[in-house]
Design goal:
By secondary structure, the chain is α+β, with helices and mostly antiparallel strands. The protein has two domains: 2-33; 57-150. Helix content is 17%, strand content 38%. The chain contains one helix and eight strands; from the N terminus they run αββββββββ. The chain has a four-stranded antiparallel sheet with strand order 1-2-3-4, with no helix packed on it. A four-stranded antiparallel sheet has the order 5-6-7-8, with no helix packed on it. The longest helix has 28 residues, at 2-29. The radius of gyration is 27 Å and the shape is elongated.
């Protein structure tokens, strides 16, 4: 009885797999059943024609302690590359720089700086094609040390099939 049951299960599995293979072969031969999505992205140049020397965005946080009052300042500047920004960080006697790279979503890049949870800290990010804020880097001080942590990595890929 067990053998009959095992043979029936194996035959069922084999027959199910055969139908799927035959359906996939017939679908691949019939090109009219394929769905295609074409996205027309606005052509945005890789380099800016003019680079602004003014800050694009700036975030300032005043930190009061018993002895001093310090200012934590993070500023974003344009670079020659359209999808790259320069991050300047100032706190106490420290002046540091970092970069922010954002993917090309087919829209003009828009960056922003939002406050972080700890003090002093902030989150540097950008807005995607759907105008949703995407976090990229967390900038903060811990134990009198500047720390920049990458929160998420983003990329855009374009795939294109050869048309016959």
């Amino acid at each position: 009885m067990k053998r009959v049951f095992i043979i029936a299960v194996i035959m069922h599995l084999i027959s199910c797999g055969t139908n799927n293979i035959n359906n996939n072969i017939s679908d691949s031969n019939n090109s009219s059943n394929r769905d295609s999505i074409f996205l027309n992205y606005e052509n945005i140049p890789e380099e800016r024609a003019t680079v602004s020397t003014d800050a694009v965005k700036s975030y300032t946080e005043t930190i009061n302690s018993f002895a001093t009052t310090d200012e934590f300042k993070v500023t974003l500047f344009e670079t020659k590359e359209t999808f790259r920004y320069l991050i300047k960080i100032q706190y106490k006697s420290l002046d540091e720089e970092d970069t922010l790279r954002i993917p090309n979503f087919g829209v003009q890049p828009s960056v922003d700086i939002k406050p972080g949870k700890a003090r002093p800290s902030c989150i540097v990010g950008f807005y995607d094609g759907k105008n949703q804020f995407r976090e990229s880097k967390l900038i903060y001080f811990e134990d009198d040390k500047l720390k920049v942590r990458v929160l998420k990595h983003y990329a855009v890929a374009t795939y294109r099939e050869n048309v016959k």
